[in-house]
Amino acid sequence: MASSAEYLTQSVADEALMLAYAKGQASAFDFLYQRHKQVVYLFFVKQGLPIAIAEELCHDTWLKLINAREKYQPQALFKTYLFTIARNTLIDHYKKKSTQNEDNNLNDDNELTATSATPQLCKQQQAQQLQLALSRSIAALPVTQREVFLLKQESGFSLEQIAQITAQHQEKVKSSWRYALQRLRKGLQNYVN
Amino acid sequence: MLYSVYVRGYRIMSTNHIENNGTETEKLTPQQQNDEAFINQLYDQVSQEQQIQPSELLDKRIINAAHKAINNSNKPNKKSHVAWYSTLATAASLTLVVSLVVLQQGNILPNEQSVNLQKTDIVLEEGINTTSDLESISPQDVMADHFDYQEKPGYSAISEQVSSSTIEKKQSATNERTLSAMQYKKQSKLVKQKKVAQMMALPPATNKLSAELGITQKEELSITLLSSKKFQQYASSNKTLNIKNQWFWSLLSENDMEYIINISQDKQQSIQYRLDKHRFKVIGVQPSDSEKLLLKNKSLSKILILNTKN
Fold first, then answer.
1. pLDDT tens for each residue of B265-307
2. Is there a contact between B69 and A66 if contact means CB atoms under 8 Å apart?
3. Exposed, middle or buried, B167 (CB in 10 Å: 0-12/13-18/19+)?
4. Does domain A112-193 match CATH 1.20.140.160?
5. Per-residue pLDDT tens over the stretch B183-201
6. Which residues pair with residue B281 across a beta bridge?
7. Do B38 and A185 touch (CB under 8 A)?
8. Residue B282 β-bridge partners
9. A1-97 topology per CATH
10. DSSP letter, residue B76
11. What is the phi/psi pair of residue B53, to 5°?
12. pTM (2 decimals)?
């Protein structure tokens, strides 16, 4: 079993840490959490959910991972496993809240357009405005496109890994990715120098 | 200008992507590559400002939950003790139930039908044609077990259809039931003999009906026991006599073993008899209105006596 010192070196793979945690090494989880907490959190925040709900879903995701520790088998990358749980948690949330209407609205062509990127604004203000517009544009994407986009752009998964996480065909994932890019570019065109 | 920005943005942001999916970017069309670079550039612009982190409270909740789960799993499992006790309790309950069932099986009486088989041989009647009454006393299915299909001409058609093996099986089953009934009867006879011995030891007043009628046990013993032959004589003579001169039977008393009856003929002759309950069965029959007139509404005017054994 890896010692705490080894965990600090970041050389121990996620899978080994998870196995160590499953065997009772609680500190292994701490390192796992530190490595991935932000990407998981961002995955929920970028869905356009309120911060409180995003945190709750984040908590649920990690709790599911904790409860399933004894069943964990390193057949795929740990990160893939973690995001599969996160995605399922998100789907459960949507089912609970019956967000069918919200999804329909999101499917409409209601992209946000950059209204004003005035040159008078300072650089920091421009960055904040861009950040806001980007978040809104992502939140306005259809669910499947948003999911693929966030997993690829924010979490750094490959299309193949996303297909694995979402249990979809890789071509469909690629298509969602392409449409998401087109839609975002159309909405954020004015923000590029 | 835009192109150069795109190239720079793509290179900066796609370091991770080249590691993961370098082949994927090769398959993308120029348009898609352009879009991807555009987004990467946007991310590049906001990445320095973007420091979104989960709250410390959330971090604590999750890490505490993780540590608590490990601590709980290290504690001795209480479920194992519960499982041990529950298993023992289940086994004890099962043993108790099985033993009770086994004990109860020894006390179950033989089938009523098997016992009744012994009572279907001969039935005699007095005063009234009791063919229909007899059918009501002995169920048809019981009677059928005693029919000899080969000897009864009325059933020859049926016997041709029934295979010999079926008959053999049925006969063997009947024999088994008869044997068990005989065993039961022997046992019940022994029990009754014991009861009679006990009754003999008791004072005569304990037999209420006898006491009411003023008949003591000594007197009972002095009364003649009615034999089947004598009974048949009475029954056959009644068939030839008119109703005024017929013999009438009235029940005086009974005990566990016997009936005490009075046989009279138009008040001229009156004889008391004891009837063995193993041989005779007494059933009260209400006289018809015409008979009541003839008998001047006297009680105990008529009883049906069935001779159940030769």
1. 766 678 888 888 887 777 665 556 555 555 544 444 455 666 6
2. yes
3. middle
4. no
5. 888 888 888 887 777 766 5
6. B306
7. yes
8. B305
9. Rna Polymerase Sigma Factor; Chain: A (1.10.1740)
10. P
11. -130, 150
12. 0.43
